[in-house]
Amino acid sequence: MAFDIDMIKKVYDQVAERVNAARELTGTPLTLAEKILYSHLWDGNATSVFTRGKDYVDFAPDRIACQDATAQMALLQFMQAGKDKVAVPTTVHCDHLIQAKVGAEKDLKSAMSSSSEVFDFLESVSNKYGIGFWKPGAGIIHQVVLENYAFPGGMMIGTDSHTVNAGGLGMVAIGVGGADAVDVMAGMPWELKFPKLIGVKLTGKLSGWTAPKDVILKVAEILTVKGGTGAIVEYFGPGATAMSCTGKGTICNMGAEIGATTSTFGYDESMERYLRATDRADVADAANAVKEHLTGDDEVYANPEQYFDQVIEINLSELGPLLNGPFTPDLSTTVGSAMTEKAKANDWPLKVEWGLIGSCTNSSYEDLSRASSIAQQAIDKGLKMKSELGINPGSEQVRYTAERDGLLQIFEKLDAKIFTNACGPCIGQWARYSDPKNAPKNSIVHSFNRNFAKRADGNPNTHAFVASPELTAAIAISGRLDFNPLKDALINEDGQEVMFDEPTGWELPPKGFEVEDAGYLAPLADGSGVDIKVAPDSERLELLTPFEPWDGKNITGAKLLIKAFGKCTTDHISMAGPWLRYRGHLDNISNNCLIGAVNAYNKKTNFVKNQLNSEYGGVPDTQREYKAAGIPTIVVGDHNYGEGSSREHAAMEPRHLGVRAVIVKSFARIHETNLKKQGMLGLTFANEDDYDLIQEDDTFNFLDLDQFAPEKQLTLEIVHADGSKHEIKLNHTYNAPQIEWFKEGSALNLIKKQNA
Ligand code: F3S
């Protein structure tokens, strides 16, 4: 589907030279991750060795993918960049804004009507700027990317954290904020700290009830939700090559749940089979010609401890099916009696109300075929469903083929609801309750990746457990969380005891994939005539107004908007949930600015002192009053400020509302970059105890901002309400080009100026 074979061949034409140059320079054999990173350097061949976990490096990604919720702000920014076309192949996928309620046909119609404004906007911007557009219902971004665009040895970025799914086809694929994507769309380099490397050696072979999902559930148990931070996880060994390509995708996908930068597998026959099955024989042929460069060196895999920063070994022959949850994806329990005990000890409901199969993690043809083999057994053995079942196929191609082959009809015989090929319940787009906040305590099992409280249905009392699609089907049929399909019998409608046989399925459809309308719209070759319409009174979309450039003067007389106490993630700064609706309207979404941050002076959220009238009020309203009065403000924060999602709204909202500086003990890296990109001052206390000096009624004067320069501290004068003063030093990490972003008002303003 319009994949760019010429671009892929260009990558392969230069891979040997670049990998050899890197090997010579480092003087060591290379992992796959290093080969991909070194062959995608912005400056071409490597000229210096990068230190893992330390050096910032400029890369040249091959592709970009955006989903509808994040694409709105990314494209609104790109529209300001002054470019006629995107510089690298880019696609937009409409998958997040479709609610699952009654079934695919009606749900899709209803989304098309309720979000038509957003879909029309994304379609016309795509058409204008040469971006491939995947219509609502075409599928979930990462499944569609795997089927159409991912290629071994490639590098892509995407405005979604599960972009990492494409590692299943041997890519280094990384989730980023929209501002980063805009840089690459505009033809600029993309910066990343050279990651650390974790090797996972898979021995043995998956069999019976054990699925690729269990591998990543096990890895999550071992590494926990933070264990992969700042690292690429590279899988290798006989267990890896024996696994399907989409199974590898499942494992890489959930690498996001251990905080990994990304995960990947070396090119092998399963990938070749998948490429050929998805109509990309030319990519498979091109990959075969350079295949030694599309996997790690033999020496690396023979002695992994010497080359990876950490090595984990898992014997797949000894791995059993797992259930992870509730509320966190790294809490692992073996099926059966271990779950009985844990559930009783923790008061988790053992009765299962729903089983959900789908999401970008587990919605391939293989997933549906293995789950349907269990559903078919339930029909054949006279079992009745004890809970409800919902299915979200990953793409229209998967759905069409699964329907042609009778798989969906098997689920329907069990009264399953077939929802749209979209994210649906995985992103809370599930109309399960009319009043989720007061809904009852219950358990559900799903094959998704995230199971945080309220994630699927908005009910804080829903205990969500993550499992493979086949185990999800078996547990949904049994209605019990502690059902062990390897040991437990169920009673059928005739009162007989029956047991499930092991699941069976097809890695790829035996009759090949088929689809009538995959849902792809190619952009116009010349989009200059496309008019992008955004209604001036729209509540969901708003064209961006460029941020004001710096006036060259020291910021003086600034007031404190909020001193945030403790953890302040991007969710605290720009909440998700119902605010998803305003992702394309900066002014409206700014009404959630910092409403989740805890005020250090009263430990309340969204309740700060307005120094203009000494009254307390919400953060956005208070800030709007400062802005109206022309008074600059600052935000103060604790450690790791801005951790979590890469959404740039968390930087754009305070900027839009008139905050001038964010001063913290330390930043999460992506958020610090996002602040810099939006022309904001992101600074850290040189002495972190100075955080304690800041009082609610203080006024702030920057004394030497007019001499802002790389590696030079800034001086801040704090004037307390009683007139006493402190002078403190602030650190920053701005290099010379980043200071230009600040001076121009934003990185985008600079791009625009350079293109004028
Ligand atoms: Fe969508 Fe859930 Fe994946 S929201 S992109 S299916 S993680």
Automatic annotation (TrEMBL):
Its cofactor is [4Fe-4S] cluster. Residues 560-688 form the Aconitase A/isopropylmalate dehydratase small subunit swivel domain. It catalyses: citrate = D-threo-isocitrate. GO terms for molecular function: 4 iron, 4 sulfur cluster binding; aconitate hydratase activity; metal ion binding. Keywords: Iron, Iron-sulfur, Lyase, Metal-binding, Transit peptide, Tricarboxylic acid cycle. Pathway: Carbohydrate metabolism; tricarboxylic acid cycle; isocitrate from oxaloacetate: step 2/2. GO terms for cellular component: cytosol. It holds the Pfam family Aconitase. GO terms for biological process: tricarboxylic acid cycle. It comes from the Bacteria. It is an enzyme of class 4 (lyase). Residues 35-479 form the Aconitase/3-isopropylmalate dehydratase large subunit alpha/beta/alpha domain. Its EC number is 4.2.1.3. Belongs to the aconitase/IPM isomerase family. NCBIfam families: aconitase_mito, PRK07229.1. This is Aconitate hydratase A.
